[in-house]
């Protein structure tokens, strides 16, 4: 978490170095500092999310989809804090085994479906709330190579899914504790944990099967927000002053009939408490927050292409690379990628490392673009490189994707 905090703080500052963007005709020059590219940074995640979405959309089957949510009981939250990697692995495994077992049953589908699952660990107020969102195809590839639709419109009963998921996760947690893999929080004992699992076996768990969607693009976009960016974006921040952070959240306990969602409210938190909540959701290094199973598993490319053929789609092809200029164009900020004088696309060059000053603008290599004319008098110029230890000034901010 310390490394995540340091990288997010340094994001797009001189501490990470940067590059120069110039008009090939010498009209405009600007210094831009590098993004930290940490997956929990809300400032530089957008481009990576767009690229992930492009890869998912390129392989999505053209069929209806279900959106399911599997939630861990709040009584397990103290154990989550001390066992994030282990509990995430067991949670994903319980969800995968539950779905594949039910989908393989002829009473529900009896075919191989496509599944994309994303781990989400926070609630609206940034508290610990582990749950998994699932994008599930409403149909699957049968043994004879045909596309099979679900037997029932609801796919399978919620109670059946809940009971099976509850039993599998409780068994996995009990086995992990018996093997000594579970780290117990202070003041908790192994007998207490076993008693908790027994208690949780007698209550209903929160498993939701949302309405059927015509296609999976909307749910994939929803899942994308968990790939990168952390638990809160800058747009939800209201104010930061007097040692207090105020941010907006939806209170789903108070329904807004007009919007069909929870009412917007504002929560104040002491700065240190807010930072602690945000950093609580930094995933351990190397832990994947998104998993693909069934037809979307990496090992099932042949089956996926067979299912696509049955649905009248071509084989999966790698999507074209997503350029940051294209993303800004879609967001309505395309003007910042071009010269305001002649309209030429700005060219990135002159990369410099942390602690270094930017190069002189007239040093732009001729091979990168047309030879620059003498910079106009109004063009900004960097300060002279008096010392490698002297950081360059931070230019005016502009919309960017990192």
Task: Name a few traits of the molecule.
3 domains, 5-stranded antiparallel sheet, 3-stranded antiparallel sheet, 10 helices
How many strands appear in the DSSP assignment? 13
Structural class: alpha+beta
In terms of DSSP E residues, the strand content is 15-25%
Q: Helix share of residues?
A: 25-40%
Please state the average pLDDT score: 86
The secondary-structure element order is HEEHEHHEEEEHHEHEEEHEHHE
Task: Count helical runs.
Answer: 10
Instruction: Tell me the domain tally.
Output: 3
Shape: globular
Strand line-up of the largest beta sheet:
8-3-5-4-12
- How large, in whole angstroms, is the Cα Rg? 25 Å
C-alpha termini separation:
22 Å
Low-pLDDT windows of residues: 367-402
How would a textbook summarize the main sheet?
A: 5 strands, antiparallel
Question: How would you explain this protein's 3D organization?
Answer:
Mean pLDDT is 86; it is low at 367-402. The protein has 402 residues and is of the alpha+beta class. A hairpin with a 5-residue loop joins strand 4 and strand 5. It has 3 domains: 1-37 and 322-397, no CATH class; 62-231 and 286-310, no CATH class; 233-280, no CATH class. It contains 10 helices and 13 strands. A 5-stranded antiparallel beta sheet has the order 8-3-5-4-12, sandwiched between helices. It has a 3-stranded antiparallel beta sheet with strand order 2-1-13, with no helix packed on it.
